[in-house]
């Protein structure tokens, strides 16, 4: 009898573990990821640039700072159309409008900043985003740079 209860416990744990990936996938099935790199006009990366993401439909916003290699990632982004503002000291602010994010598709957004004052803005209208062939967290620097 003792072995039966032990076996039932093992089966119950197995079923819980088996069902876990499906529940985790359901949490991210309605969102996307935006990743990219901020470059200067010479092709070098820009660390510590402020990247602000605003959903133009809902007004929801998120802000982050680029890493030491100029990369940024916004995980769990709701689908919609976004305005992205990027700025760094010694550069003109870049504004990308009309950046479309689709459900379950990772989007690549590389931004090039021009030398100038942060109070100056360069506006760019986005075309279709690029879907990354792998999760953004594992993207090599070369892929984020578009090479």
Describe this structure in words.
The protein is an alpha/beta fold. It has two domains: 1-30; 31-145, Sandwich (Immunoglobulin-like). Helix content is 22%, strand content 38%. The protein has two helices and ten strands, in the order αββββββββββα. The strands form two sheets. Strands 1, 4, 7, 8 and 10 form a five-stranded mixed beta sheet that branches. It has a five-stranded mixed beta sheet with strand order 3-2-5-6-9, with no helix packed on it. A hairpin with a 5-residue loop joins strand 2 and strand 3 (61-65). The longest helix is centred in the first third of the chain and has 27 residues, at 2-28. The protein is globular, with a radius of gyration of 21 Å. Residues 8-27 and 128-147 have low confidence and may be disordered.
Distance between the termini: 64 Å
Rounded average pLDDT: 74
* Beta-strand content: 35-45%
Shape: globular
CATH topological fold name of the largest domain:
Immunoglobulin-like
Count of discrete structural domains: 2
The level 1 CATH classification of the largest domain is Mainly Beta
Please count the beta strands (DSSP E, at least 2 residues each): 10
Assigned CATH architecture of the largest domain: Sandwich
Q: Structural class, please?
A: alpha/beta
The CATH homologous superfamily of the largest domain is called Carboxypeptidase-like, regulatory domain
Helix content: 10-25%
Rg, Å, rounded:
21 Å
Order of helices and strands: HEEEEEEEEEEH
